[in-house]
């Protein structure tokens, strides 16, 4: 043999195959995100940014349309006064919506507690301090009832609070006899009930204590939700209740606490409402439930729970106030003011749905 053939052992055939294999390293393609994708991601990380932008644009636009009247100290402080009660109701509503629930009874709780406080202090001569404490306890008890039925009876929050809305409203009419308590009677027997209607001068502006109360309540709740373990539990329940339970969170207890806190905020709003309208009417703020939901939705808090900042509800209430004031100064009829707010709600929910696609 002129050439010696060297045979390779059969077990080493893989080496020849390896030599002929593709040497390229696997890599992943980087998708180049567009401007809208970056905006979407930024808004998902900071949902409060949307209502802040809308509020600033609204102020600028209506300032141009209405001129100097809109930026007057009187008008700006008037907007704060007008949204102070709905803002407090929106704070209570935000707590519930963050847990993926909804509360249709917030306004009914507020009016019922104002009737209880007023009757005790004005009609029965109970010291105002104790009348207020009983009202606060009553608000917490009303919230406890809502939370108990949601957690123990496993009923949807919408159904529970729809029922208690009617219950509280009926109790309100029964306790008040469908009669208002006049401003003169409050002044004579329990003037402290109107404390949050009083104001102080800040330059040329007239600021009511009720406006300051709204801001204090919002920042207190913001601290509670963002700087405590309890607040993180609230967000976790809203995001995924079953996952929160698996993580060891006592979801039912936390939910009851959330509803009780919301009831307490409604009772605080009841005290503030007496000063705002100057009397106690069993039929006041009948649309407060829907107005509070409007402020929350426009404020960027997701109706699906677990996302959004409670400060967004404050901005949402201010946006509605700015819209109503600006359109009024521009000579727009009240009918079209409601029309504009309706489209604002639809736009806010549409933006929320678009932002949520980031996490889908």
Helix-residue proportion = 55-70%
Give the SSE order as H and E letters: HHHHHHHHEEHHHHHHH
**CATH class category label:** Mainly Alpha
Would you identify the regions where 5 or more consecutive residues have pLDDT less than 50? Answer: 1-5
- What is the 3D form? globular
Main sheet: strands, sense, barrel: 2 strands, antiparallel
- Widest sheet, order of strands: 1-2
Mean pLDDT, all residues: 86
Beta-strand percentage? under 5%
The number of domains: 1
| CATH fold naming | ABC transporter involved in vitamin B12 uptake, BtuC
InterPro entries: ABC_transp_permease (IPR001851)
Main location: membrane
Membrane topology: Multi-pass membrane protein
Protein name: Fructose transport system permease protein
Describe the overall structure:
The chain has helices at residues 13-19, 35-45, 49-66, 73-97, 106-123, 128-152, 157-176, 183-189, 209-226, 229-239, 241-246, 251-277, 288-298, 310-329, 334-356, and strands at residues 199-202, 205-208. The chain has 360 residues and is mainly α. The protein has one domain (57-352): ABC transporter involved in vitamin B12 uptake, BtuC, CATH 1.10.3470. The protein has a two-stranded antiparallel ribbon with strand order 1-2. Helix 4 (73-97) runs parallel beside helix 9, helix 4 packs across helix 13 (288-298) and helix 5 (106-123) packs across helix 8 (183-189). The chain is globular. The termini are far apart. Mean pLDDT is 86; it is low at 1-5. It is found in: Cell membrane. The chain crosses the membrane at residues 49-71, 78-98, 104-122, 129-149, 155-175, 207-225, 256-274, 295-322, 334-355. GO terms for molecular function: transmembrane transporter activity. This is Fructose transport system permease protein.
